[in-house]
Each structure stands twice: as structure tokens, then as C-alpha cells.
Amino acid sequence: MPIEGAVLDHVAVAVERWSDGWHRYVTELGGRWGSGGTNVGFAPAQLSYGNGARLELLQPWQSEANPFLRRFIDANGPGPHHLTFKVPDIRSALEVVAAAGLTPASVDLSDPDWKEAFLHPRQAAGTVVQLAQAAGSWESQPPEGFPETGGSPADLVRVTHTVADMDVALTLFAEILGGALEPDQGASGPGWRAATVSWAGPLRLRLVAPERGGLASASLRPWLGGRPGRVHHLAFHMAAQPQRSTAPTEAVPGVFPPDHLVEVVEPQDNHGTRLVLLAAAAASASGAFEAAR
């Protein structure tokens, strides 16, 4: 039985400083400030995009008291850190997780406003999964120096996650976390196959597994590097109408029609996180979500 009411709330990206992400995620992509603050070991800052999807920038804070994020950046560099799923009843969610044979870590149910637990990447297809029950929304004023946002924001439409075993990943995200498989199930490109999982919110998860042969397979396996999974990119639909790339859409793992590729920003050019920018004219999952509401 899946967790009832789970929603992919946001993707979190680790950075040395919030300001490292301002130019790309705010000035260029139009992210609006939502909330932010400091905690022992980390400082989260959430940005929202045109379709309501959210991205969280995590910077180390008071690492001497809680070094988890400092250790992550020192070992891996900055880049994607976790996926947060909001649930209406975390105790019930933990029962489902336990029944599936998974062992959550860092379970903290002491705060009535924010209860949480985590699944380790070894059990969560190669990424940290946070389960959280929140009593309400959190808002705060932007920090000094937060840039002005002009124009229409882009839509953050999906997280594309490379996995070594598609069946294992679908068991977690569809059968346990209750995601619905979209009609593109089984879509493929040169050396990869994909499945898109969606929840009630605007942010999707596209799973991509390498297959034998093809240029993409040759690049995906080194990208995994023996891991059970690794976030490949974040996909945005641009609000403006930039010139489309002449590169074939399927050249990027997990990108296929009706997407129209504009640009790929490689991890070394964006503090460890690859971005795939798509033309707004493409029929987007976010547009379908908005139309259905």
C-alpha cells in the first residue's frame, strides 16, 4: 500500500553560499524568494517558479555543531542533495516505509510544526529522500543583497534522476511514495529508457536508466559511477522564447518530444548541478497540471 497523499514538494541543492545560486536561479530563471533561515548545520533558502514548483538552496551553517552538509560538500562538491516529499501523516508514512523493508534515518517527530525522517541513498535509488509533515507554510523576508527578479519566471518542471535499476526506483517512487506513472512510460533514446512519475503538485520526477549501446549509455554509466542513482539534471521551461538548440532533443538523456532543447548548462558551470533549459512552446507537464486544477 503506498503512502497516501505524498507530494514531491521540492528539490534541494547544496551550495557553499546562497549567493552562489542567485545569478542562475533568480536573475536568469526568475526564481521568487519564498522563505529562508538558519538552523544548526544548514541554512535553507526556498525559491518558487512560475508553475509553483520550488527549489531549495542549502548552505552549511554552524557546521561544527552538525557537520552533515559540510561533509556532503567536502566529499561530493556542491550539487543536488535531496528530494522532499510532504506527507499528511508521517507516522502512517513510516509504517508504510517499514512494511516495505526500508529503515528511515534521523527520525524526528518532536516538533509539532515540522516532523521529518530520511531515507538513505542506498535505500532510495541513490538520492536522499526526506519525508516531512508540516503544520503550515513558512514565509520570511529575503536576505540583504537578494537580486531583483524581472520578467516572467521559468517553470521548474522536473528532476531527472539517473538510476542503475529502473524496477527498484519505480518500487520506491511509484509503489511506496504513491507517484503515478505518466503515459511516456517506456520512452527511450540512444542508450537509455525513461519513466516519469508525478504527484498532485507541479514538480515531476523522470527516471532514466542506461541501456546497452548508444552514446548516452556510455556517458550515463560513468555519471552513475557505481552508485544506485544520481540526479542528472533539473529541467526548466523558459518563459521567454529563446532560440532553440540545433542539437537533437534525444541527445540529452531523459529529454524527448514534445520537449524542445534550448541549452544545457553543465555541472561545472553551475556549482555542481546540470540544468536543461527547454522552449516554453513545448507541451509541458506543468501546463497540464495547471490546466487540470
- Termini separation: 26 Å
Domain module count: 2
Q: Topology as H/E string?
A: EHEEEHEHEEEEHEEEEHEEEH
Please give the order of strands in the largest beta sheet. Answer: 2-3-4-1-5-8-7-6
What is the number of E strands? 16
Helix content: 10-25%
Largest sheet: 8 strands, mixed
- Helical segment count: 6
**Could you name the ranges where pLDDT drops below 50 across 5 or more consecutive residues?**
282-293
Radius of gyration from the alpha-carbon trace, in angstroms: 18 Å
Shape: globular
Your description of this structure?
The chain has 293 residues and is of the alpha+beta class. 19% of the residues lie in helices and 34% in strands. The protein contains 6 helices and 16 strands. The protein starts with 6 loop residues before the first strand and ends with a helix. The model is unreliable at 282-293 (pLDDT under 50). The strands form 2 sheets. It has an 8-stranded mixed sheet. It has 2 domains: 7-134, Roll (2,3-Dihydroxybiphenyl 1,2-Dioxygenase, domain 1); 155-292, 2,3-Dihydroxybiphenyl 1,2-Dioxygenase, domain 1 (Roll).
Provide a compact summary of the structure.
This protein has 293 residues and is of the alpha+beta class.
Give the SSE map.
Blueprint: E1 7-14, H1 22-28, E2 32-36, E3 41-48, E4 54-61, H2 68-76, E5 79-86, H3 90-99, E6 105-108, E7 114-119, E8 128-134, E9 155-163, H4 166-176, E10 180-181, E11 188-189, E12 192-198, E13 204-210, H5 215-224, E14 229-237, E15 261-265, E16 275-278, H6 285-292
